Amino acid sequence: FLHGYACWAIDSRISLRSAHFPFAPPPHRDAYPLMFTGELHFDAARASYSFDERYLHLPLQRDEAALRTMLRRALPLTVLQYRRDRLLGERVRELLRLRPAEAATADAIAALLHLSSRTLHRQLQEEGVPLQALKDEVRQAQAAALLRRTGRPIKQVALAVGFRNEKSFSRAFREWTGTTPGEFRREGR
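^ that's the sequence the OP posted. Answer follows.
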C-alpha cells in the first residue's frame, strides 16, 4: 500500500532496489517478483524497501482535492477487499464444507469462485495446497464427525461424504487415519 501510494503521489512508478520481509519465504514466493522489483530478502529483521533517493526530490503531482477523491474511492474498496480476502485454500475449504453438492468438481468450485478451473489449480498450487488434498481434508473431518456422533451405517457415512461406495471410502479412510472406519468408531477417537 505504501509503495503504491508513493507512486500515485508523484505520478511515477518507483522502481525498488530491494524489499525486505520479516518472514520466511512463503509457498507463493514466485509471485513476489511480479509485485516488487529489485532484490527480495526474506527472514529480515524488519519490513522495509529501498529505492533511488532521486525519487524523493520529485514534486508531488497530486493536490489535496485529488487525495480526498482517491481516499473516498479507494479506501472503501481496499478495506472491503481486505475484510473479505482470504487465502483461496480457505475459501475452497469453506465451499467444500458448506456447499458440498454444488462444489463436487473442480469446474464447479472454480465457477462458484468466479475463476477458471486452470486459475483455481494454479493459485492453489502457489499456496502449496492441491485441490484433492483439500477435498480429502474436508471429507476426513466430516467422516470422523459422523462416525463419532452418529450410529449411521458406514455405507451411509461413505455416501454422505461423497464416496460412491463403502469400499472406496474405507480404503481412503484407512489411508487418512491408519485405521478402518469401524475401528475408528469402536475406539471412539
